[in-house]
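Summary of Year 1 activities. Much of the first year was spent building the evaluation harness for sequence design. The harness presents a backbone, in tokenized form, and records the residue chosen at every position. We chose the following record to illustrate the format because it has been used consistently in internal testing since the harness was completed.
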């Protein structure tokens, strides 16, 4: 496995970037999610409030059309309890979904969801998922060619950190649970899977956030559509116990966004791989001191990469890497 040093990053410039909003009614935000709603159009969501875990934390969202973001609007609020980790995605029938968590902490949270048939302009009333089903815990699910939804979830308890997969073959009406995905000998191992299909589509791979003890991004493979998974192994890419995300590109490569450090949450980087194991650096999104974390990444129908992430817990930032840069394998 190969990791080029940060000095090998292309020096010709940075991806285009913008804040989704300049001012908002909430002072703190985190955990953004992103989906393409139509050609040239995006929707992002995140949680915002007084601080993470406060009872006033709600899920907020904004749309990007004609190159401009709308003002944030509140999408869902649970009574007298915080909300967490929204996840946007589009299923095989074209319905858009917003999954989220609610509860006093990740050790005690439950899951809710809403759906939209008009590209996120209006949403159904929130519904709560059955006990034991958490839905996607941070990153977008993978929708297989047959419509099966493969969702990465995880459990953070006092006794263990473990990654799981939830599958639905009926467009989210019911779910089966698969796992846990383990790292031999470690009880506190991984959370927040990002699931991609490798080139050819027959193998699925999850990338996971790991603890400081393991210190590197973990991965596991499935050859049966997400029903069973190998034990976790470790990439050469560092992980400081911080969220990651990944996406399968149209050309079969994998793009991964993560913090290239063993401590803190800066810098924030994008790396790319043809086999999902040997990664080359594509771009640095942030390199100054601070917290730049919990990224979400999608590839648009036009071929460019879109990424959102937490900017110092104060704002959500959106970055774009052009399709031309992806074709060249470097940021221009």
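For this record, the design step produced the sequence shown next.
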């Amino acid at each position: 496995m190969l990791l080029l040093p940060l000095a090998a990053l292309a020096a010709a410039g940075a991806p285009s970037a913008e804040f989704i909003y300049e001012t908002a009614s909430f002072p703190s935000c985190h955990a953004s999610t992103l989906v393409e709603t139509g050609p040239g159009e995006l929707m992002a969501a995140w949680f915002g409030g007084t601080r993470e875990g406060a009872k006033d934390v709600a899920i907020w969202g904004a749309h990007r059309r004609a190159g401009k973001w709308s003002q944030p609007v509140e999408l869902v609020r649970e009574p007298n309890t915080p909300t967490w980790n929204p996840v946007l995605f589009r299923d095989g029938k074209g319905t858009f979904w917003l999954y989220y968590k609610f509860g006093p902490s990740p050790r005690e949270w439950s899951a809710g969801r809403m759906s939209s048939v008009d590209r996120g302009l209006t949403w159904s009333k929130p519904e709560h998922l059955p006990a034991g089903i958490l839905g996607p815990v941070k990153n977008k699910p993978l929708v297989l060619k047959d419509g099966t939804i493969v969702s990465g979830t995880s459990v953070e308890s006092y006794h263990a950190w473990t990654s799981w997969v939830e599958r639905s073959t009926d467009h989210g009406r019911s779910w089966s649970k698969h796992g846990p995905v383990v790292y031999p000998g470690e009880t506190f191992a991984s959370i927040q899977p990002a699931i991609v299909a490798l080139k050819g589509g027959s193998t699925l791979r999850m990338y996971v956030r790991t603890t400081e003890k393991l210190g590197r991004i973990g991965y596991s493979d499935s050859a049966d559509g997400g029903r069973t998974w190998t034990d976790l192994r470790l990439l050469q890419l560092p992980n400081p116990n911080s969220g990651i995300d990944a996406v399968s590109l149209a050309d079969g490569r994998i793009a991964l966004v993560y913090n290239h450090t063993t401590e803190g949450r800066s810098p924030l980087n994008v790396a790319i791989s043809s086999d999902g194991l040997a990664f080359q650096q594509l771009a640095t999104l942030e390199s100054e001191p601070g917290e730049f974390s919990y990224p979400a990444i999608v590839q648009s129908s036009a071929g460019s990469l879109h990424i959102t992430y937490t900017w110092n817990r104060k704002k959500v930032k959106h970055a774009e890497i052009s399709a031309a840069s992806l074709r060249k394998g470097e940021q221009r």
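Residues 6-328 form a domain with the Neuraminidase fold (CATH 2.120.10.10). Quantitative recovery figures across the full test set are reported in Table 2.
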